[in-house]
TrEMBL record:
Catalytic activity field: GTP + H2O = GDP + phosphate + H(+)
Stated name of the protein: Signal recognition particle 54 kDa protein
Chief site of localization: cytoplasm
Species of provenance: Blepharisma stoltei
Highest taxon of source: Eukaryota
UniProt-listed InterPro entries: AAA+_ATPase (IPR003593), P-loop_NTPase (IPR027417), Signal_recog_part_SRP54_M_sf (IPR036891), Signal_recog_particl_SRP54_hlx (IPR013822), Signal_recog_particle_SRP54_M (IPR004125), SRP/SRP_N (IPR036225), SRP54 (IPR022941), SRP54_euk (IPR006325)
GO process terms (BP): SRP-dependent cotranslational protein targeting to membrane, translocation
Domain notes: The M domain binds the 7SL RNA in presence of SRP19 and binds the signal sequence of presecretory proteins.
Pfam families xref list: SRP54, SRP54_N, SRP_SPB
Keyword set, alphabetical order: Cytoplasm, Endoplasmic reticulum, GTP-binding, Hydrolase, Nucleotide-binding, Ribonucleoprotein, RNA-binding, Signal recognition particle
Subcellular location: Cytoplasm; Endoplasmic reticulum
Role according to the record: Component of the signal recognition particle (SRP) complex, a ribonucleoprotein complex that mediates the cotranslational targeting of secretory and membrane proteins to the endoplasmic reticulum (ER).
Family membership noted in the UniProt record: Belongs to the GTP-binding SRP family. SRP54 subfamily.
């Protein structure tokens, strides 16, 4: 994505500090010059850029006696901190509550990506097991109901709307009532947009809001207008109770940085960003995590919470126990695949690993990988319990049966079994190292070359390519080796969130 370029430019400017023998005022100013240039070219308001520069200069005393390493760290920390506060809003967004009825109304101009975003938002919660319903109260644009209906059908979410009713208030009210009566967790109401901010649009939004009394109003905004987002966001906030914002199309516009910082300046929390036309081109937004990932610094805390969300708490000790014993059946592999699919976009996940570049995984590669996982799961659905648990060995006649039952081929089922063997071998090796022995693990992680050889022998070459190749894996291992692995692993095992960095 275009924002990735901004991230690369800023991190390159920071990296240059590593090459400088002495960190003096000149070096700092040169570094800040490059950072500010990159921000301005991303349409960030000149006043915010100036503030960032002044704040960093204020925080870093280059004349001090501190060693070069400390000064470098200080500068990096100050830049990251200032970028973070540029995107942060003091106001907290509405907290969705599973098991209760949450009514969320979407507003925005026509073409901002509102209808697509409603589906992305629905899909995000659907994947986490929520019961979601979509209501189309956009009676202004012909075809809006059809679009919502198509999206809803694709993600398998029930919808409510009408081809004949012209009163958006009536549809919104009836739709919300319908899903309320069925106790849905999340009811999403898509409203009309207009090409411009005009009185009729605001009037209609106010009426729908009064009729359905939503728990949250989400404003959807197209990032292509850059810092002009500020005025648009304020205008919507004045009319309805906008609680949070979703900024779309950050995949295609050079003004993304300007859009994000302008919205944050209106004190409206950004909760998600849209990064493409597909339903999973959608990222939860949290300023600190976003900046860290943008600069390739990773976000281990977030990685933990995503993994912990995806692996049910009660299953975590069991999984760690199995790994430490080096056991890994086909059923375990199936469960791991389920977890991977639940965790969402693999490239997003990868960007949470320090040293990994957010644009590393190509979309095509990721889609291919997911399709492969789904095909493998389909084959495993045709296996018996004993086969999944490794109590019956997969002899040729069984392989043929599974291939027939899943509509695949003997070659593909054989491939699945080979893949399982590789995984089982890797888990076996991890088990031997014993996760409980922190020192073993730390030594292992401190030797990236050795780690790399082991990983290479265990990973399918195709998958290695998808992970960005050996070079990138090496970089990742190096970054990870700097962290306290024993603490990381035991946290994962215990299912506790890391609080200390
Ligand atoms: N590249 C990219 N395109 C997007 C994104 N979000 C939405 N779009 C596209 O933007 C176009 C407009 O999106 P819609 O969802 O139809 O817009 P809308 O705001 O609902 O428009 P109205 O219903 O008329 O108010 C569609 O072609 C979407 O596929 C995004 O994050 N990235």
């Amino acid at each position: 994505m275009v924002l990735g370029e901004l991230g690369t430019r800023i991190s390159n400017a920071l990296r240059k500090l590593q090459n400088a023998t002495i960190i003096d005022e000149e070096v700092l100013k040169e570094c800040l010059g490059e950072v500010t240039k990159a921000l301005l070219q991303s349409d960030v308001n000149v006043n915010y850029v100036k503030r960032l520069r002044d704040q960093v200069l204020l925080q870093v005393n280059v004349e001090s006696d501190a060693a070069g390493t400390n000064k470098r760290k200080l500068i990096q920390r100050a830049v990251v901190g200032e970028l973070q506060s540029m995107l942060e809003s003091e106001k907290k967004p509405y907290q969705m509550k599973k098991g209760k009825i949450n009514v969320v109304m979407f507003v925005g101009l026509q073409g901002s990506g509102k209808t697509t975003t409603c589906a992305k938002y629905a899909y995000n919660y659907l994947r986490k097991g929520w019961r979601v319903g979509l209501v189309c109260a956009d009676t202004f644009r012909a075809g809006a109901f059809d679009q919502l209906k198509q999206n809803a059908t694709r993600i398998k979410v029930p919808f409510y709307g009408s081809y004949t009713e012209t009163d958006p208030v009536k549809i919104a009210q009836e739709g919300v009532e319908y899903f309320r009566s069925q106790n849905y967790d999340l009811i999403i109401v898509d409203t009309s947009g207009r090409h411009r901010q005009e009185a009729a649009l605001f009037e209609e939004m106010e009426q729908v809001e009064a009729a359905i009394n939503p728990d949250e109003v989400i404003f959807v905004m197209d990032s292509s207008i850059g810092q002009s987002c500020y005025d648009q966001a304020l205008a919507f906030k004045k009319s309805v109770k906008v609680g949070s914002v979703i900024v779309t199309k950050l995949d295609g516009h050079a003004k993304g940085g300007g859009a994000l910082s302008a919205v944050a300046a209106t004190e409206s929390p950004i909760i998600f960003i849209g990064t493409g036309e597909q339903f999973d081109d959608f990222e939860q937004f949290e300023a600190k995590s976003f900046i860290r990932r943008l600069l390739g610094l990773g976000d281990i805390d977030r990685l933990f919470s995503v993994v912990q969300e995806a692996i049910p708490k009660e299953k975590q000790p069991e999984l760690m126990n199995k790994i430490s014993q080096g056991k890994f059946s086909l059923r375990d592999m199936y469960e791991q695949f389920q977890t991977v699919l639940k965790m969402g976009s693999i490239s997003q996940l990868m960007s949470m690993i320090p040293g990994m570049n957010s644009g590393l995984l190509e979309k095509g590669n990721e889609k291919e990988g997911i399709a492969r996982i789904k095909r493998f799961m389909c084959m495993m659905d045709s296996m018996t319990d004993d086969e999944l648990d490794g109590k019956s060995s997969m002899v040729p006649s069984r392989i043929t049966r599974v291939a027939r039952g899943s509509g695949t081929s003997v070659r593909e089922v054989t491939l699945l079994l080979e893949e399982h063997k590789r995984f089982a071998k890797m888990v076996g090796k991890m088990g031997k190292m014993s996760l409980g022995k922190a020192n073993d693990m730390q030594n292992f992680m401190r030797n990236p070359q050795q780690m790399m050889r082991k990983v290479q022998s265990a990973i399918d070459p195709k998958m290695m390519k998808q992970l960005g190749g050996t070079q990138n894996m090496m970089q990742m291992m190096k970054e990870m080796s700097k962290m306290d692995m024993s603490e990381m692993m035991s946290q994962l095992g215990r299912g506790k969130k890391k609080t200390k960095r």
